[in-house]
Amino acid sequence: MRLTKVQDALQKKKIKYEYTEVDNCGSLDFLFRGLKFHVWEYEDKVWGAETNVFEAGRSQDIEGDYEEVISKEILSWPDMLA
């Protein structure tokens, strides 16, 4: 299982998500307040993830400690009601 920090953040916020894994890269797709978000992990000389968690209409690549960066952003969002 990949993207465990991001999955933990989504679970803490009670955000339902779909997880898939292909070629040892994790992929998360989820809705938050009616908007579609994604975190798609990749390995292309370095590990990283493409995501739109910072701006729903625009994807960007995060490399380095991408799980920490993405998790921190998700945890800053308002809590979902159960």
Helix content: 10-25%
Largest sheet: 5 strands, antiparallel
Q: How many β-strands, per DSSP?
A: 5
H and E string: HEEEEEH
The value of Rg in angstroms is: 12 Å
Oligomeric state of the chains in view: single chain
Percentage of residues in strands: 35-45%
Principal-axis shape: globular
Widest sheet: strand order?
Answer: 1-2-3-4-5
Low-pLDDT stretches are none
Topology:
Blueprint: H1 4-12, E1 17-22, E2 25-32, E3 35-44, E4 46-51, E5 60-63, H2 66-75
Antiparallel strand pairs: 1-2, 2-3, 3-4, 4-5
Structure description:
- A hairpin with a 2-residue loop joins strand 2 (25-32) and strand 3 (35-44).
- The protein starts with a helix and ends in a 7-residue tail after the last helix.
- The protein is globular and about 40 Å long.
- It has 2 helices and 5 strands, in the order αβββββα.
- 23% of the residues lie in helices and 41% in strands.
- It is an alpha+beta fold and 82 residues long.
- Helix 1 (4-12) runs parallel beside helix 2.
- It has a 5-stranded antiparallel beta sheet, covered by helices on one side.
Name the descriptors.
alpha+beta; 5-stranded antiparallel beta sheet; 5 strands; single chain; 82 residues; globular
Give a quick precis of the structure:
The protein is an alpha+beta fold. Helix content is 23%, strand content 41%.
